[in-house]
Amino acid sequence: MNQHTTTLLVIGGGPGGYIAAIRAGQLGIPTTLVEAAELGGTCLNVGCIPSKALIHAAEEFDKASHYASGSALGISVQAPRIDIGQTVLWKDGIVGRLTGGVAALLKKSGVRVVKGWANIVDGKTVEVIRDGESPQRIGCEHLLLATGSHATELPFMPFGGMVISATEALSPKTVPGKLVVVGAGYIGLELGIAYAKLGAQVDVVEAQERILPAYDAELTRPVAHALKGLGVETHPGCSVLGLDPEGAAVRIRNAAGEESALAADQVLVAVGRRPNTRGFGLEKLRIDMDGHFIKVDDQCRTSMRDVWAIGDVTGEPMLAHRAMAQGEMVAEIISGKRRHFTPAAIAAVCFTDPEVVVVGATPQLARAQGVACVDAVFPFAANGRAMSLEAKDGFVRVVARSDNHLIVGWQAVGKAVSELSAAFAQSIEMGATLEDVAGTIHAHPTLGEAIQEAALRALGHALHI
Ligand code: FAD
Which residue owns the Cα nearest ligand 1 atom 9? Predict the structure, then answer.
């Protein structure tokens, strides 16, 4: 059996694991990263990046289709066509460039990458299994678990055949005539909207009372309105019973107990994700768990000395930027730096149309936590840049403490508001007040002016409304 030893052994090459390994390498820590599939993990291969590429392609096609039926802008085109195979190739090209970039960065940082399935032997030893090769044993001082998560399967409607997860939805061979999306969280809606723009008739089934149930109703209203415009039928308060035995349809039951069938060529199940905690010997460590997740403290230490965990396997929010921030921190702590994972805010973005951003506390949350707060909304309908982009739907909302005007939250819905999320997070992280943001000169004409105007409005003197 081959054997080598290292200081840090990382299991999983997703955004959490690869960032931890790169930073550790930069800090001179001998590091080995084990990845069973492709570097980049869910995010680069079958998550964040390919989904945004497909969403962009769908948006462009939809735009062209609108121009084909005439537009107020005076632009007209012939009826557009899409070669979905070429779209997938283009998307794969982006993924390939990014995963290749990760491999190059790991190499530059001196990280040893081992391809194969990592099996934990004990807290200091991992065995890597690779088809056709004898297992390789790696000894380590520190073990970092960054094994990520997988799509949750419905036991009565398992993946296979016409029932697909986001992974298959990101590489369509054809655009289905009728797509039923189960789950109106961000993944289901992002992909459902993309497929509707690509020409599918889309139905979205959601067990809770409205789409994007994790977000407040005021924020999600413009998205619900846009879904109607796209012809997407939503079925809130409905549970899925399974595939119709008679043929291509999904049976659902509404809150009143009435059953019906939705015709489907494909069914995308997007009902959440489960942490990857099985099949690699984790149970041998007997570390403390937090439900399905690995329990960690604010330094991402597990209950076992020198065993660390980051990213989706450690809980919500299951987002790439959280995993990356945790990974960087763990490498720095191992190198001797004093760090804690106590972010003031982690932005959550839905790349729906319009987009939705939530950073920090909503007014409801702040009040529920006993914080007396002021909040104010500035609508994009009063923003010149939004008008020129035909993007008047939506708003920016700021939430601040009443006593000292410290900003505790931002929410926004509208075109391209994902790009405002950094400004939102920075203001909270840096302890900005309403006066700080209101007194910052924002470039004109930009969507970002809505940030300044929301702060001005909270202070009682918005200028453009
Ligand atoms: P992962 O990225 O899941 O990586 C874990 C890696 O570990 C995998 O490569 C896996 O092969 C490997 N692995 C697991 N077990 C072993 C083992 N025993 N041996 C060897 N290797 C192993 N997040 C955002 O922030 N923004 C978005 O816009 C966004 N969009 C998304 C869209 C979709 C469709 C999906 C599915 C997810 C999206 N996410 C998004 C979530 C994001 O992808 C995850 O939060 C992120 O990838 C988590 O990173 P991670 O490093 O914890 O795990």
Answer: 41
